[in-house]
## 1
Amino acid sequence: MDKMTETTPESLYASMLRQSLWVVTTRPARGPGIQAVLPEHLAYQVALERAGTLFGAGPIFEDGDAAPPTGGMVILRAGSEAEARQIAEADPFHARGLRQFTLHRWLLNEGSMTLTLRYSDQSLVLG
């Protein structure tokens, strides 16, 4: 690091991304019925992804990969808590009472994403 670069916690924090995202954690609310609604839930997630609202989503496993998932996590781009809540409530799992959710504001500060675009075969690799 350059000697002239200020390294106080305040100066480091000021340069971070500090982007507000919304994390929806889900857990089962009722027994059977999830499999019947799964296609509609997945279509909803894909629509959010294509609209640029969905940052990421997937199941959560507490006991490793061998156990069934114990819940799910969805990370949303939304302008407010009310908007994020409305998006979460519209998920077919939540709307039908099959899953309950908790909404958290997440401040994305640090991290990275690797993107490789190969011109030769027009492929894209995320790492």
## 2
Amino acid sequence: MAEDNEVADSDIRSKHSMCRSFVRFINNTDRKVDVIWINFEGQHVKYKTLPPGAFFDANTYATHPWLFIDSETQDKLVVKSEEVFRPEPWYQHLHREEFPRRAERTHVYITIPLYTLRERSLQVVRNNLSQPDDAFKLELPNSLQRELATMVKESMTPRSIATY
């Protein structure tokens, strides 16, 4: 399991680039979503919290990775089944004969990942526990109790995310 403020790959960070990208992040879930940019030091910077169905236009660069987190449960959300979104240059899909052309925003749909039955079940139970110790009161194997206690603790602990 990754640290609170890290993605599995700790080398994920923004790199300098001249390749602009214009995106529209669209919350395609029923959850409030934190839109997070990973800066040049690999730190998470929250740009916006999107209510369900809302969107946010961002002018970014092709080498700037983004994350999307459920603001209440801290569960990771995805774009095209990927936890980390990496924008493409604005001209990526244009044909040579189409230049010059006005830059258009790429629509980026934030969705809920396809969880296994086990993962989703643990999330539902976690959402009904108020304290980590409550997990040990359930008639479950010790390994699941420990995992649930950790999940409750993580959902209660604010992430160290800078705000834009």
## 3
Amino acid sequence: MTFVPSAGSLAELLPGSWHIGATNFPMWLRGDRLNPTLSYEVRSEQPLKFLDTVTYSTRAGVRKSIVGVDTLRGDGLVWRGRGILLPFRSHWKVEGTGPSDEFVVTRFSKSLVTPAGVDIMVRHGARLDSQELRTIVATSAGEFGLTPEDLATLTWLELPASA
């Protein structure tokens, strides 16, 4: 469903862990950052802020993390890195949600170091496999804020057994 963001709806929707089910983001498609997991934790409600932690494995099996803070601005979120990533920012928003909020479609704008793109994130523990996700999204793409061009650029990733 198309998602109308508000502080309350985002504070209910995003907390928890998510897996990438589909993406056109080069960072997840190059093959050197595997099995990405995104975790969101509410840090404040006024203004709404999330601690945003992305973890992934290298080809050598080493787990690495990227940490930032997302702050609600208008109808989207502004991510700002922490530590050595402090100078970096990116803008993103939730475009749509799947049944029972099992997945979300996010769109991010071009930043200084990343292209614009789309991620479809599946909630950890969702009872949804990769093929089901693809079918739901493909048959109702417009409801999730996706254009035919968006669909054509997505690469579908294998979800863990219990996403």
